Batch of 2 targets.
Target 1
Amino acid sequence: MHHQEMSQMRYSHGKSVGGGDVKVLVTADGENLEANVDTKFARAPYFLVVDTENLSFEAIKNESANEFGGAGVKAAQSVINRGVEAVITGNIGPNAYQVLRRVGIKMFRAGGKKVKEAIEDFKNNKLEEIVSPGPRGMFK
């Protein structure tokens, strides 16, 4: 199913119509649910793809974290390829923001939290939705 169609099916973050599990991507400074949510989307060392129903996850090393330029777009493409419905991070630059927004992936702010705590807050609709990007290139 296309991301935009999935986004339209969602009636509140953390749940989807039809009861299917929701996959979210969390930027993290480590490889498990006890890691901190990384505040830099494109420069985060790891992406954790988490199933919000059972908290199973996959830790993925962010290959674009050390790119000189274009890290945001490369990171965003990686997110799209994972089939997630939402991203939980601290801040996100304009290029990545536009790419994710274009395909219907929602973004939420959870800097300063543990990944597990951020997932619980997401499920309980307690995270702030990111509705505008941060400045370009602010996290090099």
Note: Residues 1-19 have pLDDT under 50 and may be disordered.
Target 2
Amino acid sequence: MSTTLAKVQHKGAVIIPTQLRTQAGIAEGDIMEVSLHKGRIVLVPKMVIDRFKVPNADGEYNAAQRRGIDARLAKSDADIKHGRVYGPFATAKEMAASIESTIKKQRAPKKKGKAVSAVR
């Protein structure tokens, strides 16, 4: 553990010696969490994520497209809430078999009620 003295400057600025900054991996412009713990000031380097640099789809859709997407998401949330889901599956083979079975059921001709013959 390295220790050294540092003088408090104007407006509370304290210069952290180069050796300590290097050991702690602190660079100019880094954000530090500052707290008081048992009478000691503790500085902890923090990672800040700039939300504007993180990719998202905010600007990729117009208002009508966004409404459509939101509607489909709401429908899928309702399906999940009401148990209209498939799975879980232990393997991809199991999932594929479930999909094929569902497709066969959907393609099968619908059974109609008994035909009523017209009596003349």
Note: The mean pLDDT is 86.
